[in-house]
Design brief:
Length: 129
């Protein structure tokens, strides 16, 4: 078994695929104003659009892994391009790309790139206005 033999995860320990929060369970409900028949991940795109309208100086950077199986690659682009924002606010959304998956920081080249991108984003957007 890969988990026990290859990864050497202890035979005396249980591996949980999902985080165990005890009596506190993740609340997957989120009122998006849209009808939903599938209890999947909450969609917070309307919250993002609202935040950007309320604060037109808000800058958003998304870190996108080309091989991300947890968040399909073009989903982030599609979702942010369809927020219905005016063009001036749409320009406040930035995407950075990595030749890795969801956890791009596990690939040394992308870890360095991620650090540089996030540091540059913080530097550029933390100056007094």
């Amino acid at each position: 078994m890969y988990l026990r033999d290859d990864l050497k995860f202890g035979h005396d320990r249980d591996y949980h695929v999902f985080a165990n929060f005890g009596d506190n369970h993740w609340d997957w409900k989120h009122n998006t104003g849209e009808a939903s028949f599938f209890p999947g991940s909450p969609n917070v795109m309307l919250d993002l659009a609202s935040a950007m309208i309320v604060n037109p100086k808000l800058q958003v950077e998304l870190e996108d892994g080309y091989y991300d199986l947890a968040t399909p690659f073009f989903e982030a682009e599609y979702a942010t391009e369809h927020l219905g924002l005016p063009e001036a606010l749409q320009k406040n959304i930035h995407h950075k790309y990595y030749a890795a998956g969801h956890m791009m920081y596990l690939r040394p080249e992308d870890l360095a790139k991620l650090k540089a991108n996030v540091a540059a984003f913080i530097d550029a957007n933390s100056k007094p206005m």
